[in-house]
Amino acid sequence: MKSPWGSDGETWRDDRKSAAVPLPIVVAFRRSRVVTFGVVIVFALAMVALGVFLWIQAAQQTRFNPVIGRIGAAVLIGLFAPLGIALGVQVLKRAPALIIDAEGIVDNTTLVSAGRVPWLDIQRVRATVVGEERFLTLDVADPAKYVRQGNMLRRCFNALNLRIYGSPVHISANALAISFDGLAAIINRLHAQHQATRAGGA
Q1: What gap in Å lies between CA 103 and CA 145, rounded to an integer?
Q2: What is the Cα–Cα distance from 158 to 145, expressed in whole angstroms?
Q3: DSSP classification of residue 29
Q4: Residue 157: which of 171, 168, 173 has the closest Cα?
């Protein structure tokens, strides 16, 4: 099967003569993002090691209140251990960053991504600009369902995104081996096809 991407993996060739889009479409992370993950993991491990060192030293030194040292150590360990573990799991499992199939979209681009988003849930696809970064925002029928998903950190981020940007589901192409415009073309086209199919079957 001929790849829908160009030779560099960046450009979607939107052939209007063909109504069919080859599925599933699997999008990997950019190599630079994988390297960034590795750097962040090393940094997180270093901070955890520093936290353990401070915890041990707090009990041995007499110049400062040991409680203060242990609080600082606990903060370092509590913040960076989960981050390092989560990123490590994401790197080791080698899951694709994004999967687009007949059922919808599976978003694994960040630690707080929505995961599976069915086409049935997507009402509109739009662009959101934050600083110099563009996100593909998916307006969903039941935003609260996506806010409730995941751990506490993910729920907090999704609730904040819903309040500020009107949806808890956002996909950044910056980390992906595809351009924003290419990703938008694919998702918009498949979403339109799904809506047309639903309307025809109603």
Answers
A1: 18
A2: 10
A3: B
A4: 168
3 CB contacts (<8 Å, ≥6 apart)? none
How far apart are alpha carbons 169 and 136 in whole angstroms? 8
Q: CB of 48 within 8 A of CB of 77?
A: yes
Whether the Cβ atoms of residue 54 and residue 68 lie closer than 8 Å to each other: no
Distance CA 162, CA 60 (A): 47
Token pair, residue 56, equals: 């041990």
3-class DSSP assignment, residue 183: helix
Query: What are the residue ranges spanned by the domains of the chain?
Result: 32-93, 97-201
pLDDT digits (tens, 9 = 90+) for 104-155: 999 988 877 888 999 999 999 999 988 888 899 999 999 999 999 887 878 8
Q: 3-state secondary structure string, 38-107?
A: HHHHHHHHHHHHHHHHHHHHHHHCCCCCHHHHHHHHHHHHHHHHHHHHHHHHHHHHCCCCEEECCCEEEE
The Cα 107–Cα 111 span in angstroms is 10
Distance CA 40, CA 66 (A): 29
Query: Which of 181, 138, 185, 141 has its CA nearest to residue 161?
Result: 138
Specify the range with the lowest mean pLDDT, choosing from 49-63, 161-175, 186-200: 49-63
Cα–chain-centroid distance for residue 98?
Answer: 9
